[in-house]
Amino acid sequence: MPQPHASTAIVEQQIQSRTRNMGKLAIQLLFLITFFLVLVSHILPATSQEVEDEREFDYNPNGEKGPAHWGRIHPDQWGACSNGSMQSPIDLLDERVDVVSHLGRLNRSYKPGNATLRNRGHDMMLKWERGAGSIEINGTEYVLNQCHWHSPSEHTINGKKYISDINFPVPLFLSIAMFALEVHMVHESLDGKVAVVGIMYKIGRPDYFLSSLTKQLQSVAGSYERDTVVGVVDPRNIKIGSRKYYRYIGSLTIPPCTQNVLWTMVKKVRTATRDQIRLLRVAVHDDADTNARPLQAINSRTVKLFRPEDKDD
């Protein structure tokens, strides 16, 4: 029979062996967890929020903080503004457009929600506190978080230019063909993907949605408060009026100019009054006439135009 002390030594050796094995297993598990987190951080798109304070850049084409220099202001965060190959806005030129009918109409499920008007420095942003419903694109749900306005419009259709300064009278025959404003409805999915729906406006009849915000915008214009509570706002009042739209992959049009943004530009150009557009600029208090980024190179990207087969649109 083995001696008692020999049995004790064997047990201690077994315990030490198990302890070493558990330590190795813990190290391997820690390594796997670290590897998984790094892998996920590279696979999943980063949450690409637009900057909330826009005072670090401006739209002066000849200034040190103008669009041509955005990527140099914060090279690590805003580098895509200068080096990105899928930047927005672009010219939606017919010659480059693939007309398709398989994309389907925009599946919008918007709902009213409490919102706040925020002066970001160069634009007015209407932000819904807990989202305002969603749209579904290719099986992915994107929650509507905010909308904001650029004047003149940033995108163009077939190279059409716009009213450069809405403070000056424009002949009626010219104003009909020019796009004076563009609204961006910014959506985000649970995994951080961004989808933007854009609508362009020319000078004409009042826009119903902007009319509903007139008092709040006038209040902002008369003060220097950053945020103004608006109350319940229904995004369904942002009218589209058409089932036709352009679809392409681009970027945010303000820093950090994050790419892989899914763009939907409504083909129908709607109308807003000169006073409505001017009020959006006056409320910002940046003493600038415009807040539109110049057109970016389309490079090898594909632009699709959804046109329903029934042609009732």
TrEMBL record:
Molecular function per GO: carbonate dehydratase activity; zinc ion binding
Catalytically driven reaction(s): hydrogencarbonate + H(+) = CO2 + H2O
Family annotation (PROSITE patterns): ALPHA_CA_2
Entry-linked InterPro entries: Alpha_CA_prokaryot-like, CA_dom, CA_dom_sf, Carbonic_anhydrase_a-class
Signal sequence residues: none
Residue ranges occupied by any Alpha-carbonic anhydrase domain in the UniProt entry: 55-307
GO CC terms: chloroplast stroma
Keywords: Membrane, Transmembrane, Transmembrane helix
Transmembrane domains' residue ranges: 25-44
Compartments it resides in: Plastid, Chloroplast stroma
A Pfam cross-reference name: Carb_anhydrase
One example of a Gene Ontology biological process annotation: one-carbon metabolic process
Family recorded in the similarity comment: Belongs to the alpha-class carbonic anhydrase family.
PANTHER family: CARBONIC ANHYDRASE (PTHR18952), CARBONIC ANHYDRASE XA-RELATED (PTHR18952:SF208)
Biological function: Reversible hydration of carbon dioxide.
Name the record gives this protein: Alpha-carbonic anhydrase domain-containing protein
Source species of the chain: Salix dunnii
